[in-house]
Amino acid sequence: MAYFYPRSTYHPETVEQGVIEWFNYPESDPELPMLFGARVVLSPGLGHNFHRHPGREELIFVIEGTIEQWVDQQRGILKPGDSVLIPAGCVHASFNLTSRDAVLVVVLSPVSTGGPLTVEVAEEAPWSTLRNS
């Protein structure tokens, strides 16, 4: 079982919104049954639109930048040092409001639910109109 995760061991993934650097992922350490997480860099003006994680809780901690954070239909603004806990299956979204990269640490639990990691819902009501109202 790995206890230490130097950055050289992260699993980077380039996505439309920026970069996800997984410090552990379900396939990376099968002996770690409850947590996995990443360092996330959101590009200026971008974010992860409304989605949910069936059966998984998520903690987001802001390192750099200002984030427009949605949990269900509630909106909050997060700055460095702020965090948010998202209940399992709850729809949420995170958007970088700054002109520079925003850096987050995200942790999800449990590793395995037998279902998908993410379900995108941004095109569904009411999520499709929340940021426009």
Question: What do these coordinates show?
Answer:
0% of the residues lie in helices and 47% in strands. The model has no long low-confidence stretch (mean pLDDT 92). By secondary structure, it is mainly β. The protein contains no helices and 11 strands. Strand 6 (67-71) and strand 7 form a beta hairpin.
Briefly summarize what is shown.
This protein has 133 residues and is mainly beta. It has no helices and eleven strands.
- Count every beta strand, where a strand is a DSSP E run of 2 or more residues: 11
- N- and C-termini, Cα separation: 48 Å
- State the secondary-structure class: mainly beta
Overall 3D form: globular
Helix content: under 10%
- Poorly predicted residue ranges: none
Number of helical segments with 4 or more residues: 0
Biggest sheet statistics: 6 strands, antiparallel
Gyration radius over CA: 15 Å
Average residue-wise pLDDT: 92
Q: Give me the strand/helix succession.
A: EEEEEEEEEEE
**Taking strands numbered 1, 2, ... along the chain, how are they ordered across the largest sheet?**
1-2-3-10-5-8
Strand percentage: over 45%
